[in-house]
Amino acid sequence: MNMDFLSNLLAITGVIVLVFMYNQWRSRTKSKTTKKTKSPPEPEGAWPIIGHMHLLAGGKPIARPLADLADKYGPIYKINLGVQPVVVVSSWEAMKECFTTNDKALASRPDSSTAKYLSYNLALFGIAPYGSYWREMRKIAMLELLSARRLEMLKHVRISELSTSIKQLYCISSKKYGSGKGVVISEWIEQLTLNIITRMIAGKTYGEDVEARKFRKVVKEFMFVSGDFLLSDWLPYRVLKWVDMLGKLKNIKRIMKELDLIVGSWIEEHVGRKREESKEGDEQDFIDVMLSVIDDSYTQDHTRETIIKATILEFHAIVEREIRKKLKCLHTDNGGKYTSNAFEAYCASRGIWHETTVPGTLQHNGVAKRMNRTIVERVKCILKMAKLPKSLWAKTARTACYLINKPPLVPLNFVIPKEVWSRRNVSYSHLRVFRCKAFAHISKKNRQKLDDKSTPCIFVGYSDVAFGYKLLDPVNRKIFRSRDAFQEDQTVADFEKSTKLRDVITPDLLPSPELSQNARYDDVQQEVPELQDPMREIEDQEKRDEGHDENGVEQGEQPP
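The line above is the sequence of Integrase catalytic domain-containing protein; the predicted structure tokens follow.
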């Protein structure tokens, strides 16, 4: 007995030592290969096998220790969950940069045993890696299943199920028709949602029988395990992939086996119904549409039945996750950029109802057309007053649109649009005078010890990607963003008090008194002087401040 215990102890110790040695060897080889690449900061104290998992323990919500690490290492840092490196992004600016500007680079998904077993070997397009199969299945789902036309055709399904559920709720809770007992609203809403989804997908409705309870139980378990993870996913050793210490993998296989039988019976019913002669007016659910669109030779990766099963599970997950307020309706004109297949797929993928105006009816789009004229006139006025070249019209237009949402508007009964949209008070402390002289801070890594800490620039707008200002560098002729910038005219009030107002508002921008009151402005040809180069203006101003004239000669000194 003692010999068996010692042999087992030696075997376990040997395995642990081998695992530790392999982990050290792999970390060293990986550090040599990735030494030249720049990686985010990483907290210290990673253990050989579990990595930084011990930093996330302690009974607190996982967001709190991650936030503490972000305060210490910055908005972007790296941790090791097991031996798998994970990048943590904790600022909305970086999130926008990742999922809007560089969304294609992050479109794929990591390999996971949970995802593999729950999605028919990655046939579910919401979990499938980015590639040709994902693009084709997303195109089918968004254009054939979730398009505005298809949802409008199935509108009566949602109305019918909602009406039936409300009647059942009244009968159960009423003392006249039922027992008058209380009703658990969460369970009632869950059953209503499940019936709507099931009827839209398969044309079936579940009541209170044994089959319905079994189906609801399997769907609940599927949604629960889809957010769980297996310990083997975070271990690099392929020999441990088959180890199921907590029985989670066995539970996942059981759930998918039961769910596969239910979904498979739905498909068999629709295939048998399709073989029979059907009328044109028959109602088509999602499975009917997918059977007509996808054939056996459509893709080489998965069979037609597998694709349909995976897509059905994806729709269940989408509706279950849709619990927050999002954009529901979008009203546009019939322009090509709004009626393309790509834009329709974009709206359908996010559940946005797209409405278009009637062709030839300008009244439907009058507000937008009038606002377009207003923006154009503001751009022209800003460029004229600031004496900037027309090449900056795009930055000027963005600034004009940014400022339009700040003051109260008449169509909104003198309510500020920004407050209506964000439900927060609008701050005006960050507003600056367009074209004012600014000084952008130069970081230590970009300057020498005795160099200037700032560089003169021109303020040309507000950053729409991250917090900061858009500044024009007059020397390098480039526009960049900077958070640490100092403007000479900090606010509009300071600008009005400064002497620069006389230099900006020149007589050529004012109406001439020589013009007759009856003369039309369009008939008068005025010679508008060429706009001064703002970069040249800044250089001349610096020379004047140093005691030089515009030619670079000191005042009081005769030029050669």
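Note on the example: The longest helix spans residues 2-33. The beta strands are 76-81, 84-89, 329-332, 353-356, 437-441, 454-462, 469-473, 478-482, 485-487.
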